[in-house]
Design brief:
The protein has 202 residues and is of the alpha+beta class. The chain has helices at 3-10, 14-21, 44-82, 125-150, and strands at residues 28-30, 36-38, 84-85, 94-111, 155-166, 169-171, 177-179, 182-197. A hairpin with a 5-residue loop joins strand 6 and strand 7.
Length: 202
């Protein structure tokens, strides 16, 4: 019986069924025109059920992987939210039990120049920068926390920020000067540590 007819009669995905056949142990042969034939002497109903069982197992496995990934993502987000930071070098009520070293997180933003606007309406670069600073600092801190998380740490000490402003220019083959957007960047620096809450003395 042709594999495509089996799939049609039983509502099976023909591509998935043919792929499964390759490793299923079911005896089949490829016809001269490229079709796949299964010997009618075999238990067709049993073959169909085996394929469906295989699909159910794959679906359950995929669902478990997705659930595990979602749980891991939730746990990571909770861990990141619980990482505490300070510009100082200690936390009241906690003891630093491990220093894991210097880490940093970076983020940048571009601000267009007024020269790129032909009919006025040029952006206020200072206003654009100030509106972006909160966001780029937040993103740099998130990168910093990601770095601490990767080291298995739950806190960061000595946190500070470094800022950089780029005023890029370039020239074309004719020597004409072109002003590219301003670039403002920030780096959050610190030291990743593990801290433990102090036990109250009796």
């Amino acid at each position: 019986m042709k594999a495509k007819d089996i799939c049609k009669q039983n509502g099976l995905d023909s591509t998935a069924f043919l792929t499964w056949l390759q490793s299923s142990g079911v005896q089949f042969k490829t016809g001269a025109m490229g079709g796949v034939d299964i010997d009618d002497g075999q238990d067709i109903a049993g073959i169909v059920e085996s394929f469906r069982s295989h699909q159910r197992e794959q679906s359950e496995r995929a669902a478990k992987v997705a659930a595990d990934q979602q749980l891991a993502s939730q746990q990571k987000q909770e861990a990141l939210a619980n990482i505490i930071i300070t510009p100082g070098f200690n936390f009241d009520g906690y003891t630093i039990t491990k220093y894991s070293g210097y880490i940093s997180g970076d983020h940048a933003v571009q601000v267009d120049r007024g020269t790129q606007y032909w009919f006025g309406g040029a952006p206020n670069v200072a206003a654009e920068l100030m509106s972006s600073l909160v966001e780029i600092r937040r993103q740099a801190l998130m990168e910093l926390k990601e770095a601490a998380f990767a080291l298995g740490c739950n806190a960061i000490i000595g946190v500070d920020f470094d800022y950089i402003t780029l005023d890029p220019e370039t020239t074309n083959s004719k020597g004409e000067l072109k002003h590219l957007p301003y670039v403002f960047g920030v780096t959050a620096n610190g030291n990743a540590v593990i801290i433990e809450k102090n036990r109250l003395s009796a």
